[in-house]
Amino acid sequence: MKIKIDYFLLLNCILFLGPLAISSLSNYTNGVINCQRDLKTKPCIPAYRNVLSRFRVNKKYKINFCTITKNFSTMIRGILCYIDHPGYAKKYKTPISNTKWTYKYCDDYNYEETTVGIAQNYTQGSIGKLMKTYTNIVFVREPLERFISGFVDKCLIAKDFIKLDPSYCYGCKTNLKCFVNRFYNKIKTQILHPRKKHVDNFDDIHFYPQSWHCQLKLYRQYYTILKYGTKSDDLKLFYKEFFNLLKSKGVPQKQVDFIKEGTISNRTPHSTSNKKITLNISNRIRNDPQILEKLIRIYYYDYIEFDYPIPDLPKP
């Protein structure tokens, strides 16, 4: 019942604020996607559900990063490993983009799944103290770009995992339309039948709306949003804000410079930017009104919440 109440509250907000975000859409797109009209049949998936999240915490500089998959998450894990162990740079002589920083040099010593867990381990159990004394950061990304990166990485590049587990990628193997349909139907069922038991799986965590992560429903006001992206201008702005953040928290310039050298011109193995297959999937989605419509319905409130322009639907 509470989910429905939150949803209607959000819709009421959209009535006042939404036009600013969707006014640039064509009449055709606005006619097809009407979240209020389609609430019970083809709902736009509401924001703010608390799902399993991945927090990375640095005690020395008092920074709490909520990491959302495909949003700089692998890189930030390596960066925090280095910040806590700067001597490893001289010892191992590998750039931050090398996943040894992520998976070998440091374990999950700074990993938490809930805000309560962070507070218990870092601020004597006080969430209020955590929110006021730590800088809380979440990286977000243009929703469609994030989805494409996730699909290419998990269902196309890493498709060998499908042989080990046929349920991987919602059992659709490399079929994009099948994946989007099953994902939308599954997430729609959660919204329309909130009392039905649901267990999040690997696919869910990688593709859920970004606003579902980080317990933003409760703590959104305490988080600083940094927009990550792979386009040149987006990436330049992101790194400028990110490095300014590190310096403002007292991270030594020498360490910031080492991080710069290993990030600005480098990618992790999970990166899908600048790959031909990524462009192909992007073009296919943007030219298929059925696939794009479902993705907009899934991520509609991510577009609103994080102030990204909603893409227009192509006319069939």
Report on the structure:
It is a single chain. This protein has a 5-stranded mixed sheet with strand order 3-1-2-4-5, sandwiched between helices. It has one domain. It has 16 helices and 5 strands. The chain is an alpha/beta fold. One of its GO terms (biological process) is positive regulation of response to oxidative stress. GO terms for molecular function: chondroitin 4-sulfotransferase activity. Keywords: Signal.
Brief descriptors of the model:
alpha/beta; 316 residues; disordered N terminus
SSE succession: HHEEHHHEHHEHHHHHEHHHH
Report the mean per-residue pLDDT as an integer: 89
Low-confidence stretches: 1-20
Number of helices: 16
Keywords: Signal
GO molecular function: chondroitin 4-sulfotransferase activity
Protein name: Sulfotransfer_1 domain-containing protein
GO cellular component, one term: membrane
Short description:
The chain has 316 residues and is an alpha/beta fold.
SSE blueprint:
Elements: H1 2-22, H2 27-32, E1 54-58, E2 63-67, H3 73-84, H4 87-92, H5 100-103, E3 111-112, H6 115-122, H7 127-133, E4 135-141, H8 143-157, H9 160-164, H10 176-192, H11 202-207, H12 216-219, E5 223-228, H13 232-248, H14 253-263, H15 276-286, H16 289-305
Parallel strand pairs: 2-4, 4-5
Antiparallel strand pairs: 1-2, 1-3
Helix pairs in contact: 8-15, 10-16
